[in-house]
Each structure stands twice: as C-alpha cells, then as structure tokens.
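Action item from last week, closing it out:
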Amino acid sequence: MKSVIVGTAGHIDHGKTALVKALTGIDADRLEEEKRRGITIDIGFAHLELALPDGDTLRLGFVDVPGHERFVRNMLTGVGGIDLVLLVIAADESIKPQTREHFDICRLLSVRRGIAVLTKSDLVDRETLDVVRSEVEEFLRGSFLDSAQSPIVAVSALTGAGLNQLKMALVQVAAEIPAKDSTALARLPIDRVFTMKGFGAVVTGTLVTGTIRKEEELEILPSGQRARVRGVQVYGQPADQATAGQRTALNLTGVTTPELARGMVLAPPAVFRSTSRMDVALSLLAPANPLRDRARVHLHAHTFETIATVLPIDKKQLLPGETVLARLRLAEPTLLLPGDRFIMRQFSPVITIGGGVVLDASPIPRMPGLDAFLKILAEGDPESSLLARITRRNHRGITLTELIAETGWPGKIIEAHLADPVGRGWVLRVGDRFVHAPALEGLKLLITDTVAAFHQENPLVQGVGKQELRERVQAPGEVFAAAMEFLVREKTLEGAGDIVHLVGHGVVMKDEEAESKEVIEAAFASAGLKVPALKEVLAGLRVDRVRAQKIVTLLLRDKVLVKISEDLVFHRGALEGLRKRVLSEKAKVSKIDVARFKDLTGVSRKYAIPLLEYLDREHVTRRVGNHRVIL
C-alpha cells in the first residue's frame, strides 16, 4: 500500500479543515479552543484510502495546518514532511497574505507536487469563480503548481461539489510521487507528545525515512536518551512496523512524557550526532530585506524550531532573491542531515524571508576551500560528495561510521558508491577508515621529514620512538601503521623495536663524545650492582652536560644502560647476571626476603629495595608480604 503525506496550506478561514473533513470524514481540529473559536491553532491529522487504477490502494495522510499569521510557526511544524500540498484558496476571497506566505514556504521546502483547490465555490457565481481561477493561474504561473501541469479544482465542502474530481486529481498526482526508501536509516521528527493512560508516553510524527518496528530501541536526539518501542500505530491502527512516508504513533518505554518534546527526533541508537553548526545553501525571497552578516533569524526544520545566526561565506550580506552558501549557528542542537530543507523567518517582525537546504551538518572550523567543497555537495552526486568528505579529512581519513553519521546513508550504500574509487586506487581502505590516496603520500612525506628533523635535532640519538612520531604527525593508528609499512617496504625508514630512523642513518659522534660514551659504559659495567651516582660519572667527562645527557639517552634507548629508579642506572650485563643469580636460588629456596637478597648480592639496602622492585616488574619475583616468591 503506497503512503503519501498531503499537507494543506492557505489563508485563515479559507476552509482547509472543512475540506479535510469533507474528504476523510475526520475533524482535524482536536483542541477545545479550536472548536470554540472556529479556527485551526495547531496541526491536525486525518487519513483517507483511495483505489488506484491498477487495483492497489493509496493511503493519504492529511496534515491540516493553521492559516492565521500568528500560527505560521505551527504550520511549519506540519508542512515539513509533506509529499503533496493542497493550496487552499477561498473562491469568495481569492489570494490573501497567508496564501502567499504558505506558497513561498512550500517552494522553499522544495515541495514538487500539489493541487490548487478553490474552496467555498457554492458562495460565488460562475463568473466570479472564473475570475478567481484566472487570478490563481496567474499567481501560480511558472511554479510547481502551474496549471499547465497541476490541476486547479473547485469544490464545496458544504455541498460536496467537486470532491470526487479532487479525489481523482489526488490519485493522479500521488501516483507520480516516488515511494520513499524504507530501507534507509529511520528518522521520526516528533510533532506531538502525550500520555495515554495505561500505556505511558506516546509520540507522533511523519516517518521521514526508514522503518521503525515494535520492540526496537531508539535514540532520542538531541538528548541522547534511549527508549524502546512498546507499540506502533499507523494512521490510528495497530501495526508491527511503520515505514517511510507514514503518519506514525509510537508508545515508548524507558522515557517519560516530560523528557520528550516537539522538535526532537527518534533515530537508531549510536548512529547520528546532533549539531548546532551546519553549512547550507540559503535563498532569500525577493520581497525580503537584505540580510546582513551575523543576522539572527528563526529557523524551522521538520518539527524543530530555534534561533540561528547566519554567516554568509565570503559575503557581507545576502541580497533579496539571492542564493548563497552560508554557515548557520543554532542556539539549540538538533539532528539535521544533508538534503534536509528549512525555513528562515525574520527575527522581528516574524515573517518568512527565505529558506534553504542543508549541505553539511558536520562542518570543520576554518576549513580551507570551504566554498568549493560545498559546491560539490550542492551538485548532489553521491560519489563526488563522498570523495570530497574523505579528501577534506586529509591523512586522518574518515571511518565508515563517521560517513554514515555525516550523510545519513546506510553503510552498504556508501561502500557501493566508493567501490569504483577504491578499485581505481583513488581511495584507500585502511581498516574501517577511508583515506584519499594522495593524502597518504603526503603523510609518508611528512613522516620522512619529521624523522629527518629529529635526526638533525638529536644527532646522538639513534632514532625516534614510533608513538612519539605518530603524535608529531597527528595520524590515526591504522593510517600511521599503513604509511610506516610503505616507508619500510620502500627502504626509506628502518628500525628495531619501537625505534625508527632513516635508512643509512647512524649516530655521528665527535672524538670526545665517543670517548665519553665508552667512559660511561665502562663505569657502570665495572661497578656491577654497586653503581656510582650518574651525576658523578657525568661530572668527570670532557663534554658538556647537555651532550653528556644525550649520550646517556642513547645508551638507555639501546638498552646498554637500564634505569630502574629516578637515581639508579645499571649496566644491562649486571642486571642479566642478577636475574640468573636469583633464578638459580630457586633450586634452594622458593622465596627470599630483603636480608637474604643483600647477602646474595652483597649490596646495601639502598640498592636492594630498588633492585627487588625491578625484579618484580620483570616478573622474576612476586612480592608476597615481606618476601619475594621466585617465579
């Protein structure tokens, strides 16, 4: 069964609610105040099923919106998810201010299909009706509701005249609307929240994309809370699931009604991120005043409303009738994705002045080439958009999970669009991360230059530690490892263990430095376990303190010397001899204490305690109370 969402639009008291009731038999005005005052204040809902020519059933979900200028913000909540609009114009009044504003809103939201409906046709004569029809045709000329491609139907909700013709037109126009993708990731903007006795929290909304099933867990954005779907209703009837394009009610557990609000979005858990920054293509209506840089506006998207600051990119102001690239700063975070449309209303007085489309809801601060990047996204080619998103991350690349969050596309779709660039070698798959091939080449050059600079700064040190090198070039672990593997294979770098250096690089020492190195090593080698203080050894060298310390660092890196505490350094030969001596004691005793260790080694307590702690760290012994168990 095909589902299509139909929205009403038009001036107050032009008969929108009466038309919906005449078509569906459902009164969309649900509030007591609405019935008392005879006007629509908040959005209302109804539904209708019609037979298609091929025998299938068309299910129409109607979103009835208020026409009064004071309630345009409520109108915007309902009109965001519609597929088809009924532009309602009363035959006895013709085109009025909210007719124009609602029509502008529909165009800014990129509504592509609709029907102009002349209501209250029973209140005018034939000649007047023809005049109004001509006025409407002129008003709509060149738009998506141009009478050359979209019907204008005169009806009377009171007498029923024209209703069958309108239903036929609905079937015809709805048949042209492509079915929404129910396999996409689900998003349900919330438009109503209430409590149902015996069930708890209930939310309603138009399911924008994807499918929501009973017992599923969902995340509530932007709060990040989790809730489970206890029950699903579609157009007021219980269902096992709701699919894209359907009016949906969900009974949620794990969350209370006060924790929910209109404007929040339900989505799969741990997939999307809320944003308070987004880059957009922004259009200003021709009648509007120029919009200066950093102007504050009211922003409406789906059921969400907030204050936004407009920052045109490379411009100081936005002129009437102009479309520019801009960054929006939102006062409150929300979930928006590329392709989502929004409406912009003047801060004061509050009138509709423009709107646009989200290009990037994950902007990078001070990104070079931002306008070129956004133009690629605006063209809408999926492969080019993904390549641009990968390229802007430089050698850091981007994970599949991050691409899903940025685009809203399922992982399989992303991988399908990237299959050709990966196959051609333009993009490299490194673990779960996509990296632009030239960026990896750039990282290899950066690593090589960084190692060369390290050698120049530290001529007495054999090489640089891998972790230190990765931190210097700021690369993710898997990308850094891939670049290092290439450099080693290409014989640019080599190393042992954690230390890497340029191929052919050796420690270059002057005569007095080489002599000092031998003096240091000999002093500790001959001392055994009764080592001298390091500062005493360095004091007797021919080189200055800085060079002496670099020589020590080199000996420590090469593990000729081993530092076991802040003050004690031993030769590796002495420590290896100690290890063998302690292990040989295991044939006599299973454990030793400090006194026995001092007798065994001939050292004082000053050395005994640090050496025993070293043996514990090396898993030669394990401390148990006042003894050490020999392992």
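Closing note: Residues 401 and 560 are 46 Å apart (CA to CA).
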